[in-house]
Amino acid sequence: MLRPQDTATRDSKRLDGVWDFRLDAAGDGRREGWAAGPLPGARPMPVPASYNDVLVGSVGRDHVGDAWYTTTVRVPRGWAGRRVVLRFDAATHAAVAYVDGAEVARHTGGYTPFEADVTDRVRPGQELRVSVVVNNELTFQTIPPGVVHDGPAGRRQQYFHDFFNYAGLHRSVWLTSTAATHLEDVTVVTTLDGTDGVVAYTTVTAGDEEHGVHVTLRDADGRAVATATGAAGTLVVPEVHRWGVGDGYLYDAHVELVAPDGEVVDDYHQSVGVRTVEVRGTQLLLNGAPVHLTGFGKHEDSPVRGKGHDDAYLVHDFALLDWIGANSFRTSHYPYADEVYDMADREGVLVIDEVAAVGQNMKLAGGIFGGQGYTTFSPETVNEESREAHAQAIRELFARDKNHPSVILWSIANEPESDTEEARAYFEPLFALARELDTTRPVGFVNVMLAPHGTCRVSELADVVMLNRYYGWYTHTGDLVGAEAAWLAELTAWATDGKPIIITEYGADTVTGLHSLTPQPWSEEYQVAYLEMNHRVFDAVDAVVGEQVWNFADFATSSTSVFRVDGNKKGVFTRDRRPKAAAHALRRRWNPKADRTP
Ligand code: BDP
């Protein structure tokens, strides 16, 4: 599936704006055919945004079930004879889309795109109605999992991850047009041969005629540096400008589909960063040289819009990453909006790209230990159907993000149960699938503190060890001396596996403005002391190739716990992106040469 684009032969129309909207907990809309016309009792709702906090009161926050969106769009007159596609960048968590009341697409998985060919349903120059019903229910067979309970207050969604279950149309909706015969997919894989860059490409074309493929690779100044023909081929770039950290140099592969009479019927621009990623021993190599990741686990999260994509937050967050000296982040705990990866590509920021498999661990809920009353892997809980949904989530993520140079490592789950035979059996085929889909990037998963070295049965399947550890927070609370000794002992044991280790989470909840002369948990001083203790431990273990603090910013969580006060406060920045003392401490470590004049 290619991204919407405006080229000489492709057009796109973004349908973002204020749509008509209605919650439908009872599920009346599907029975009564609400997709067919204007939505009865509609209220306004922005797209993209989560609907939850846009609405006032608990109605949006506590909603479980369907929510309807509808809008009308005029199909451009110039699209006569063209193939027209309706695309959703994301609908969380499951959706059915309709055009003029007829179902055109169905999709499960809240963080990856889907589309429908609606050519037969549109008349150029005419208006059409786009409706979509989005459902936010999570079960043991969804990614991520959850359980819906019936109670005196109605249906309630329980889930096992530590961020609010925001839902709705979180990303853009598009109507696009191409020629009937069109490019369906483009894949690029880059390698280095001395000072040459080698770009291997493959294309997939849909349509019945024999068409040729021409590819021209241009540098950032628009100069053609290599050309090739054929559905698959290789482009060699002498003296290539490598893509690297802080140097997001991008080439442009212009792919043209040419009819036998020479007419260019379709064309698409694929940006290309020429770089290699490799694991060698305990090192992670970018372009053959070791890298050390600095940065954060993030969330797509901001006031009012929830998980709705926002370009202002996007650009500001990247400016903050640059200010603090972060060269990487993890898309904890789900695939982010396409725009985020585009920005990472152009800024030279490294991304650990994560599947939305978070919460498959019934001994844990959001870092807090304590049984959930379920067995993780069983015929009734996480089972074969869940694994198929998980496999599908991997397929869709890899297909979407395969061409981003910024994506250097896949994470196929966060903190699943990993110390049992059942876990091993569940994950083995998923690792095999990931390796089959992408032979060019390392694959891993994020290990939880409950499965320390020696007990984890899944980490040996991974290329890189990724650890979330909270010594000094969830254990050894307030005792940084004891924490340091225990943490160093565990990390030293992991290092004996001979793989690179990335600390994907370490952090302490901190109330901004809470100060203490002694390092008290929740104070800004404690967060700083906690991070410094962790850094001493990391610096003592050579196999540690990355440190990503939990979290970049404070974020919203479910309102049903006694250990979250208005959300998770482990942010180094507040939810509105103001620095805590820890931000300055991290900047001193990660960006020591930065100008410190205010
Ligand atoms: C880890 C989870 C993360 C939580 C964090 C915490 O991966 O989602 O938010 O703990 O407790 O277990 O803050």
Describe what this molecule looks like in 3D.
The protein has 598 residues and is α+β, with helices and mostly antiparallel strands. It has 3 domains: 11-178, Galactose-binding domain-like (Jelly Rolls); 182-275, Immunoglobulins (Immunoglobulin-like), CATH 2.60.40.10; 292-590, TIM Barrel. Helices cover 18% and strands 32% of the residues. The protein has 9 helices and 32 strands. Strand 6 (94-99) and strand 7 form a beta hairpin. Helix 5 packs parallel to helix 6. The structure holds beta-D-glucopyranuronic acid. Beta-D-glucopyranuronic acid binds next to loops. The site of beta-D-glucopyranuronic acid has 11 residues, from loops.
Task: Give a quick rundown of the structure.
With 598 residues, the chain is of the alpha+beta class.
Global structural class: alpha+beta
Q: Tell me the number of strands.
A: 32
Number of structural units classed as domains: 3
Write down the Rg.
24 Å
From the coordinates shown, what is the CATH architecture of the largest domain? Alpha-Beta Barrel
The count of helical stretches stands at 9
CATH class of the largest domain: Alpha Beta
How would a textbook summarize the main sheet?
Answer: 8 strands, parallel, barrel
Separation of termini?
A: 46 Å
Shape: globular
How much helical structure, as a percent, in the residues?
10-25%
| Unique bound compounds | beta-D-glucopyranuronic acid
Question: Low-confidence segments, ≥5 residues, pLDDT <50?
Answer: none
CATH topology of the largest domain: TIM Barrel
CATH superfamily of the largest domain: Glycosidases
Strand composition percent: 25-35%
Mean pLDDT: 96
Strand order of the largest sheet: 23-24-25-28-29-30-31-32
